[in-house]
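Readers outside the structure-tokenisation community will struggle with the description of the input data as it stands. Showing the layout once, in full, would remove most of the difficulty. For illustration, here is how one protein appears when written out as sequence plus structure tokens:
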Amino acid sequence: MKKLTFIMAGLGLLACLAACKKEQTISTEPVTDGAANLKTDAVSWVNVIPTTSFSSFSTYWNNLYPWGSDHNGSARMRTQNISVSGGVLTLSSTPTSGVGNSSKDPYLTIHYYSGTVYAKAIATVDASWPKWHFKGEFQNPSATGTWPAFWATGASSWPPESDFMEFKGSSTCWTNTYKNASGGWSSVGTAISSPSSWHTYSVYMTKTNATDVSIEYWIDGVLKSTQTGANFVGKPMNIIIDYQMEGASGSPGPTTTTSMKARNVLVEKSATL
């Protein structure tokens, strides 16, 4: 009986460990989300961007935004603020002045030079590839005025947009979807202990009907939110790693150079659900 008790206890421990690793083994273990009643079963993945992509940067990534150097904050993006070493991407933000205003709404005064990159691959959830996985490890600043993000947005129209990871001047990580079923934003904030340490941010985007997708947002292997992306199906999306400044993250921002770092970024797709 004692031997049997030890065996049963061991099996119980293994079951517990397996449950804790559900996000890492989603390609081989069934995962059920109670709220959406969705199930992922034995998915077969095709690699789009490998975890080693920063070591072959020009093969997989472009500098700046798909639309140029400016966006909705006070940073103007430059290639000089983008660097890669040892498989780690660093985007640095440096204070500047006297260079005018952003060319994008809301046309803020440019206070920084910074860095942004976007993937050469385009992600499209459709009947051929109904499931996508986006993942990366990041070190993020969280001071007022810092605005690091990992996200996907419409390549030919907006919406759609899915913010896999967004910090807006605090230690709260925001996961956001636009457009949701009501035609607006879905947003969930998660407090992150020491955002400047390495954390893993992961998203599963799954076609649920002819027009919509379910989006699971995971942080450090834990499911934090499941949101609906309305009219995402068939819409090509750019994948962006972005270190913007001020704007929604508050002001004034830092007076010295700051940076965000990324490594092991992975994008994969599946023809099976």
Residues 171 and 191 are 6 Å apart (CA to CA). The longest strand covers residues 258-270. Helices lie at 2-20, 57-60.
